[in-house]
Amino acid sequence: MPRVLKPDESTQNILIRPLGPALEKIDAMKRMTYLPPLPKDIQDLSQIERLHRVFSIRDLHIPMEEEAKLQQTIDMLIRQSLSKRDPTLALTWREMLADSDSPSGMQEASVCQARPISNAMAAVVSGIAGCGKTEGVRRSLLCLPGQVIRHHQFPNLVDGNYQVVWVSIDAPGSGRAEDLAEALMVELDDVMSAAIEGYTPRFSDTLARSRRDGSKMLAEWRRVAQSHFLALLHIDEVQNLFKLATIKIRSKKNAKASDLKLTIAEDSTLKWILTLINRWGISVIFSGTPDGIGALTTRLSTGQRLSVGGYHAIHPFAGPDDLAYRQFIDVLARYQWMVGRLPPNELYEPIFRLTAGVRRLIIALWVAAHRVALSRTGDELRVSDFEYAASTFLAPAKTGIEALLSRSPSQFGRFVDLRVDEVFWSTFWSEMGLGQVKPAK
Q: Do the Cβ atoms of 304 and 274 come closer than 8 Å?
């Protein structure tokens, strides 16, 4: 059921008013926080019931201070994108339709207004895989009233309009314009289908073609996105737009820094993204690994826009004595589905040592340790369960964890994204939920 939105009284722009007033830092952090229900009556739960309930910890989110700053950046990018696209102004429609009004009557000359200068900006979120950058962006976007806003009355449109506030995609692994366009089209259709009952996918015919033109597909998507006044495009995994050095090169001990740099996959893709910001007024936020963000900012002439829009680095926890880390473990320690519980102070050092403070790995280790504990005799959680889980289920991440713990730039450079592919994660969670684990000794 659509809900009534509290308007932003500071503006008369009908695209910005439904977004509501900008949030203060403390209010943003409250909205971004999610704590699953705490375990209770554990002794009455069967092994399989506990196993299923421990998975709720995957939704736990305690925002870092940097995420509050990120939320403010995203809110700013959205409002600035819309500030020069007020649909009550004729110039907005003239720009969208790329058509000028023809003067009526016989006149010696007439003057057409210049198109408005784009207020759209770019921002970046950088961090190794698993540190929480994607979730930080997602939680920031969810602080907004909604992704799609229904305008029952809209200038020049009889049946109103659906305003799409943001769209979020993963950069395609090929880096090709055609694949980027496909990802954009599929996502926009999915967003509209979720919001509009009986919506007919707009891009189905284009996507069904056997022969595709990436540039034309991107232009088509842009026109549709503009008609719904899209304010922000989030492109995640931006390193996919570039070619990674081969494993053989990255594994060399004497590999040069220049050998490890990412190279462009398809130049037209980046040029189109830059035009989207400069020409068409849609803000863009990029998120990805440090090497991907570095390659992006070097390749695109966005230095000034990025410095204005914002740069946010999301790091793993600094160490077992880091206050934020200890607060996170203190909360996590409340979610033990065993009768015998471990106090937080016994968990600080081993969990950090086994995960290097990477949030996704901490959560994975927590679930895996419970899986180990539930497979053996004794209704208690032990530190040895974490050690065993790390040496088995999380073994593919061991090299990356050691690189992070080493604090060695040369070693870290070869495992900068802590690359654990989706095959590992899908297999990992499948094993946690369904597979059998060899009992720990």
A: no
**Phi, psi (degrees; rounded to nearest 5) at 269:** -65, -50
Residue 233 makes CB contacts below 8 A (sequence gap 6+) with 166, 167, 168, 169, 184, 225, 276, 282, 283, 284, 285
User: 3-state secondary structure string, the chain?
Assistant: CCCCCCCCCCCCCCCCHHHCCCCCHHHHHHHHCECCCCCCCHHHCCHHHHHHHHHHHHHCECCCHHHHHHHHHHHHHHHHHHHCCCCCCHHHHHHHHCCCCCCCCCCCCCCCCCCCCCCCCEEEEECCCCCCHHHHHHHHHHCCCCCEEEECCECCECCCEEEECEEEEECCCCCCHHHHHHHHHHHHHHHHHHHCCCCCCCCHHHHHCCCCCHHHHHHHHHHHHHHCCCCEEEEECHHHHEECCCHHHHCCCCCCHHHHCCEECCHHHHHHHHHHHHCCCCEEEEEECHHHHHHHHHHCCCHHHHHHHCEEECCCCCCCCCHHHHHHHHHHCCCCCCCECCCHHHCHHHHHHHHCCCHHHHHHHHHHHHHHHHCCCCCECCHHHHHHHHHHCCHHHHHHHHHHHHCCHHHHHHCCCCCCCHHHHHHHHHHHHCCCCCCCC
Integer Cα distance of 270 and 259 in angstroms? 22
Give 38: exposed, middle or buried? Use CB within 10 Å, 0-12, 13-18, 19+. Answer: exposed
Measured CA to CA, the distance from residue 399 to residue 385 in angstroms comes to 20
Question: What amino acid occupies position 371?
Answer: R
Locus of tokens 């680095």:
313
What gap in Å lies between CA 355 and CA 328, rounded to an integer? Answer: 14
Block means of pLDDT (10 residues each) for the chain, 441 residues, are 68 92 94 95 92 93 95 95 87 64 51 66 88 94 95 90 96 90 97 94 93 93 95 93 56 50 68 86 91 76 59 93 96 96 97 95 95 91 96 87 79 53 62 58 53
Q: Find out whether 160 and 154 touch, Cβ atoms under 8 Å.
A: yes
Residues β-bridged to residue 148:
164
HSE toward the beta carbon, residue 206, CA cutoff 13 A: 22
The pLDDT assigned to 406 comes to 84
Q: Could you give the CA distance from residue 256 to residue 327 in angstroms, rounded to a whole number?
A: 39
Q: Which residues pair with 161 in a beta bridge?
A: 151
